[in-house]
Specification:
- Helices cover 80% and strands 0% of the residues.
- By secondary structure, the protein is an all-alpha fold.
- The protein has one domain.
- It starts with a helix and ends with a helix.
Length: 117
């Protein structure tokens, strides 16, 4: 996949990570236990981030080692294949701890991917 075509999955990763951050604004971990729609929404957003990561070409993944590709895809796989045993603590920690630095990296990377450099 060319870097130019990688722009779309990079954009999807960024957009869905940002959406997850908006959804947790003003919330706390216990809200996942009481708000099924929040839980399902966050699971889906993290799944999409992982699926988009899978679609980024090998060349781009190697060019941007600051992105934890294996962990992102691994989380997606755990959510999809272990749908019946989602650890909400891990999901919450992923969103709160891992998405902000991922967003920062994607915001730095995206202009160069968009430019095809």
């Amino acid at each position: 996949m060319s870097q130019h075509s990688d722009e779309i999955p990079f954009r999807h990763m960024l957009d869905h990570a940002m959406e997850a951050m908006v959804m947790v604004r003003g919330k706390n971990r216990s809200d996942l236990d009481s708000d099924r729609m929040l839980e399902l929404s966050l699971v889906r957003l993290v799944e999409i981030i992982g699926e988009a990561a899978v679609r980024v070409g090998t060349e781009s993944r190697e060019k941007y080692p600051s992105i934890p590709w294996l962990q992102i895809v691994g989380m997606r796989n755990r959510l999809v294949h272990g749908y019946d045993a989602v650890d909400l603590d891990v999901l919450w920690d992923t969103i709160i701890d891992d998405l902000p630095p991922l967003i920062a990296e994607l915001e730095k990377i995206l202009p160069s991917v968009k430019g095809g450099n």
